[in-house]
């Protein structure tokens, strides 16, 4: 585990860099976390940019285009051997 100590205004703060920013993650991101799949793994397998995958992991407010979602779902099926579908992560 990588940690960082920060000292500001007399307060020492311990930051776990691996969990930083993981609070309000999307259903898609939680699926990746649960299955040990990196954003880069999905991006490579789906043939989309890592920034697209990163944006989709930030919040459930973001949804991919049908074309991009199709590539991502196909990649997830190959990576996990599970029958995942668009509706598992996003709403139309």
From TrEMBL:
Q: Which Pfam families match?
A: HTH_3
- Could you tell me the superkingdom of the organism this chain comes from? Bacteria
GO MF: DNA binding
Domain HTH cro/C1-type, chain residue ranges per copy: 34-89
InterPro entries found in the cross-reference section? Cro/C1-type_HTH, Lambda_DNA-bd_dom_sf
Keyword tags:
Plasmid
Q: What is this protein called?
A: XRE family transcriptional regulator
What species is given as this protein's source?
Geobacillus thermoleovorans (Bacillus thermoleovorans)
């Amino acid at each position: 585990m990588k940690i960082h100590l920060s000292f500001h205004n007399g307060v020492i703060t311990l930051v776990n860099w691996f969990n930083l920013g993981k609070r309000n993650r999307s259903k898609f991101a939680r699926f990746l976390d649960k299955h040990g799949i990196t954003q880069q793994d999905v991006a490579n397998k789906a043939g989309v940019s890592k920034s697209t995958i990163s944006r989709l992991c930030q919040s459930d407010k973001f949804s991919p285009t049908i074309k991009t979602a199709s590539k991502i779902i196909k990649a997830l099926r190959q990576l996990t051997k599970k029958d995942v579908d668009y509706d598992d992560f996003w709403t139309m």
